[in-house]
Amino acid sequence: MSVQRLEQFRERIRQELDRTVDFWVKHSHDPEHGGFFTCLSRDGRVYDELKYVWLQGRQVWMYCRLYRTVPRFHTEEILEAAKAGGAFLRKHARVGGSSGLWKCAFCLTRDGRAVKIQRTIFSECFYVLGLDELSRVTGDRDMQVEAEQMMEKVVHWVQEDPSGLGRPQLPGDTPSSSMAVPMMLLCLVQQLSEGRGPPTALKYQRVGQWCVQQILMHLQRGGMAVLENVSVDGAELQGCQGRLQNPGHALEAGWFLLQYTSQWGLQDLQDTAIRSFIEGPFHSGWDPDHGGLFYFRDVDGHCPTQLEWSMKLWWPHCEALVAFLMAYAHTRRPELLECFTQVYDYTFKHFPDAQSGEWFGYLTQEGKVVLDFKGGPFKGFFHVPRCLLMCENMLDQILGRDQDQVPDQDQVKSQN
Amino acid sequence: MSVQRLEQFRERIRQELDRTVDFWVKHSHDPEHGGFFTCLSRDGRVYDELKYVWLQGRQVWMYCRLYRTVPRFHTEEILEAAKAGGAFLRKHARVGGSSGLWKCAFCLTRDGRAVKIQRTIFSECFYVLGLDELSRVTGDRDMQVEAEQMMEKVVHWVQEDPSGLGRPQLPGDTPSSSMAVPMMLLCLVQQLSEGRGPPTALKYQRVGQWCVQQILMHLQRGGMAVLENVSVDGAELQGCQGRLQNPGHALEAGWFLLQYTSQWGLQDLQDTAIRSFIEGPFHSGWDPDHGGLFYFRDVDGHCPTQLEWSMKLWWPHCEALVAFLMAYAHTRRPELLECFTQVYDYTFKHFPDAQSGEWFGYLTQEGKVVLDFKGGPFKGFFHVPRCLLMCENMLDQILGRDQDQVPDQDQVKSQN
């Protein structure tokens, strides 16, 4: 592939990142109550004022990561918005429940009153993600401790005792492992251990090893299939739940594993990540008729029961872009760059909105935009900018460019 | 419209009902554990053994209603299957929870162990529906009492104290009324009060009046829009939840109200049911480009956040067929028969499967089958046969035919 093509990718990706940041800075901030509106129509108008905690935490994280690592986003406006988001989260997200004050709401009213609590770990995880990254920007030690304490609680729920989540134990409900859980924890382990000293790093190292082992349990059928749900001891589960595949999720797990291998230097794991979590799910998840990645598949070819199974969502394509570029950066195997190009072409043809900026999120199988909003209950300022930022950085690296750096003295601000 | 056309409708509907009954009798029975498999692929194979309680109760009801009222379905095979379904429900559905032993599971394993419990009333309602109808066939007084006691519990949860359902009360969760709840209760009121004497009939009469009043609260914007969710005192709710419309649901509410008016003779309510719950939602919910009823709409024209909003599902079309034929039978207004024909043409062109029998359930906006199974977690032996049975009966009535009757002495069998 020519350097020129790679330069074209980089330029377009950089422009899309700028447009995406502009869109959310312009439309999502709530000057009255803090936090972010996430239900934004095609042109940015707020069509629902509910504040989804997953998306609040993710936007705080993304703003801080941009502020902390990219000079052109190192602005007061982004910093202040991130702080207002963090303040909103700390003030309102934790709502108690059966396990003391640790459960976070799933969504809040505009002024921060809890509307719904999920009996899972994800609101809490995105709370950790946002607050830890914000504490790195502001130097707020108290916020960092808050994030670490919540992480301890999450690890406790996952590894020791899930009763605090409030789910009833039912005799027919076979305990199972959803791949989302170790993926989420591995993401947090990487977040929380970055640059931290021995006791903290060691603690998270053990959790990280557990996560990798758990993710690998989802590789089934002699390494030929990644299954979303397996039994707690790594066997296939019966029925639809056991046969479910989510290609975008497998691809995301693939680059999480690759990131992990770059830290720990594990050649076998790198090969598995690329072959089984990236190349395999990409080829089996790609729609040969219309292009794009299916949302869900059934490993035995039954029809999935999810009504949206054949739709093309933005985020699996974001994960595929990151996964293939990272796999190429690790190995320089040209066929990985070919796959990146295939995903790139589909993605940039279908998802970006030339008229109002940002990306559409939901296409029919045939590639028609069917939900035209830019933000919704599950689409916020996260997958698109994370993908674009990572791809921009990786292309810089592949092209041998020096990445711009935020000056050291600006990286950590004291709150005083 | 010519009598010939009506005869054609009737003949096709009768054939489809026979094919649908054949399909479920052939493929859904579980001789080992009782109850019904509901996850049936296009050709009837079981692709998941989970037993969904909504669908168990509905299939018991439908079998018994066919057995009790239609001579050609008055067979031992159907009676025995209904009894086996009822026995499975009584043995396994009630699983306790925070309110004693009243909560029913949402789904069970093949052998009856609880997998999931919803914090709503619907599993319990379909339990009531199935058992009451079965008790009418078998003369099982104990089963009838069981159904009535569960109904009392459901009414208690809905009208007095929902805490037994296990939902936490959250400060930002504005108490709201979902139209599904009074619709479901009105359906049960009609089921339980059929042919019952004064004390029972009077009790249910009061509940029925409450349901009608509650359903009418969902008529908003000067009678121009039916909204799925309103506040408990009948005001519009903010955001997506408040703007949500479900045309098929409004049409179903329409014929529930019409049935109620035939019992109580309420001309104003008949006019409202036809104009506001049937004609209005039909015209605003019909897709002008591709035909068929949208699954969801936003009353202000925003994009709904449900990924499946633009899909064409089988059941709204079933409800529309029943609603327009019933409205025509009540009024003999020819334009109602024109609407019936419009729905009929779309429905019979798209949903029945000429190859394997029964109906597909899920089409894209453009009318392509996108989930090809015949039964799934929410599609069982209910909407299709209920619609076909009711339409066959109404066409007989419109055509002035005598309906075949099951001989009186066969209607109630003693268990002895």
Automatic annotation (TrEMBL), chains A, B:
Pathway: Amino-sugar metabolism; N-acetylneuraminate degradation. InterPro entries: 6-hairpin_glycosidase_sf, 6hp_glycosidase-like_sf, AGE/CE, AGE_dom. Keywords: Isomerase. Its EC number is 5.1.3.8. It catalyses: an N-acyl-D-glucosamine = an N-acyl-D-mannosamine. It comes from the Eukaryota. The keyword Isomerase applies. Homodimer. Forms a heterodimer with renin and inhibits its activity. Belongs to the N-acylglucosamine 2-epimerase family. This is N-acylglucosamine 2-epimerase. It comes from Periophthalmus magnuspinnatus.
